């Protein structure tokens, strides 16, 4: 058995003056509804820590878990490809910042039940405990990096099934307010690695 989770927010990036990294993309959500009708759609609007709670609640080791982010456009065979694989950590890669291909993020990823039984999320919680942004509460903007860090340390590597479309436009580099008291500074150039810094707001 496989559970499919899609957390979303209907707010657009600057509706309230803050930047919502996973702002709703209608085409992405429409593709999930069409090609993964079994997906559990969870509105996480206004809660910076809901994404972490929703993943943690489903990390039980009894069913495979597929996560699809709502700015990802999946196709008719995307979920079936992940479900039919015998690898523990599977994904579809996607482009970000116009210069980087991600294969360790949560955009379209499957974690097997066996992997869940092996990898304790307490290790991810330990990383969150040192996060200046959320102080251990589990912020969505670090979640993919922290989870990937733990999986890679535990000897897992992502099995890439191909690519999916990433519908989010990050716009120009600059300083972006994430939440009260925290801003992010993004800097990148075509063909180079993006740099990301989290700073206290001034």
> What name is given to the CATH topology?
Spore Coat Polysaccharide Biosynthesis Protein SpsA, Chain A
Number of strands: 12
The CATH class is Alpha Beta
Fraction of residues in β-strands = 25-35%
Oligomer: single chain
- Average pLDDT confidence is 84
**Number of structural domains:** 1
| Radius of gyration, taken over Cα atoms and rounded to an integer in Å | 16 Å
Encode the helix/strand succession as letters.
EHEHEEHEEEHHHEEEEE
Main sheet record: 7 strands, mixed
What would you call the shape? globular
In DSSP terms (H or I, runs of 4 or more residues), the helix count works out at 6
Q: Helicity, in percent? A: 25-40%
Structural class: alpha/beta
Distance between the termini: 48 Å
- The stretches of 5 or more residues where confidence is low (pLDDT under 50) are 197-202
CATH architecture level-2 label: Alpha-Beta Complex
List descriptors.
disordered C terminus; 12 strands; alpha/beta; Spore Coat Polysaccharide Biosynthesis Protein SpsA, Chain A; 3-stranded antiparallel beta sheet; 6 helices; 7-stranded mixed beta sheet; 26% helix; globular; 202 residues
Structure explained in plain terms:
By secondary structure, this protein is α/β, with parallel strands linked by helices. It has a single domain (2-170), classed as Spore Coat Polysaccharide Biosynthesis Protein SpsA, Chain A (Alpha-Beta Complex). The chain is 26% helix and 29% strand. The chain is built from six helices and twelve strands. It has helices at 26-35, 50-58, 78-83, 113-118, 122-129, 140-153, and strands at 2-8, 40-43, 64-68, 72-73, 89-96, 100-102, 108-111, 159-163, 165-166, 174-179, 182-187, 195-200. Strands 1, 2, 3, 5, 6, 7 and 8 form a seven-stranded mixed sheet that branches. A three-stranded antiparallel sheet has the order 10-11-12, with no helix packed on it. Strand 11 (182-187) and strand 12 form a beta hairpin. Helix 5 (122-129) crosses helix 6 (140-153). The N and C termini lie far apart (48 Å). Mean pLDDT is 84; it is low at 197-202.
